[in-house]
Amino acid sequence: MRTGTMVGFDILGYYVMNDPDRSGWGKREVTEPQRVWRRQKAWRWSTQDGVAADYRAPRTLWLLAGLLLAIETVLQLADHGVLPWTGLRSTAVAYGAYWDFLFPPGKVDQALYPGQAYVMLVSYGLLHGGSLHVIMNTVVLFGLGKTLSFHLGIERVLATFLVGVVSGAILFGLLADTAQPMLGASGGVFALLGLWMQWQRLQAQEFGRPVRSTLSTLLGLILIHLVLGVFLGDSIAWQAHFGGFAMGYWVMAWALPNRTR
């Protein structure tokens, strides 16, 4: 899919790849390595940090990020007594968080409302454990979402985020055994991270650059979680992170176009 922001890249890329001495269209034969190098150069000229300089994040991405921040803001205001809704956070957690004892759906009959075992697979991603938690997730969500929506479309970004949230909850339910609620959009964020890393691999292959192996990617992900575990202890839902990442890296990436833009 092409956009107006890529017209400059298309024209410039064709020019530098087919007319290196700028003396006429295609008068001088160009080798394949030269074509690859000139295409990379054209890409850098037409973009800034991987995203066109004049590209604006889609409105739906702003709305999603704003929704996450707004929910936590309301809960924070209620926690500090600014809003007269005593116990709002505990109520939100009780009704919207992921509860391991409810998984798999139909396992027990202790739900607070019909369908809670299914709703929680998505609703837990809208709740967070505090300001730092939601800010970290929102910043990464917006950064990755803007880059991926430019190259792959906002529809793929939203679908990957949603599928990552659900798959993160499912893997957490399969591997975890805890009475504590699980919160946060990290499953969806890690799904976007996985999709972005797979897209980077495809781009590197197209441009002839060294490609990071899947094993090294997984080892890096494990190392990051080991380091985080030292500082944050067992409060990290690594199962949800890996569930979302796997969905973005392997499953959602199958639908990527054969050639990146």
3D structure, described in words:
- This protein is mostly helical.
- It has 2 domains: 4-46, no CATH class; 59-255, Rhomboid-like (Rhomboid-like fold, Up-down Bundle), CATH 1.20.1540.10.
- The protein has helices at 7-18, 32-46, 59-79, 88-96, 116-123, 131-152, 154-175, 186-207, 214-232, 238-251.
- The protein starts with 6 loop residues before the first helix and ends in a 10-residue tail after the last helix.
In a nutshell, what does this entry contain?
The chain has 261 residues and is mainly α.
List the helices and strands and how they pair.
Blueprint: H1 7-18, H2 32-46, H3 59-79, H4 88-96, H5 116-123, H6 131-152, H7 154-175, H8 186-207, H9 214-232, H10 238-251
Helix pairs in contact: 1-2, 3-6, 6-7, 6-8, 7-8, 7-10, 8-10
Which structural class fits the helix and strand makeup?
A: mainly alpha
State the CATH superfamily name of the largest domain.
Answer: Rhomboid-like
Q: What is the name of the CATH topology of the largest domain? A: Rhomboid-like fold
Q: What is the level-2 CATH architecture name of the largest domain?
A: Up-down Bundle
Count up the helices: 10
In total, how many domains does the architecture comprise?
Answer: 2
Residue-averaged pLDDT? 81
Highest-level CATH class of the largest domain: Mainly Alpha
pLDDT < 50 stretches: 1-28, 41-48
**Distance separating the two termini:** 8 Å
Radius of gyration from CA coordinates: 22 Å
Oligomer: single chain
What share of residues is helical? 55-70%
Q: How large is the share of residues in beta strands? A: under 5%
Spatial shape? globular
Major β-sheet annotation: none
Succession of helices and strands: HHHHHHHHHH
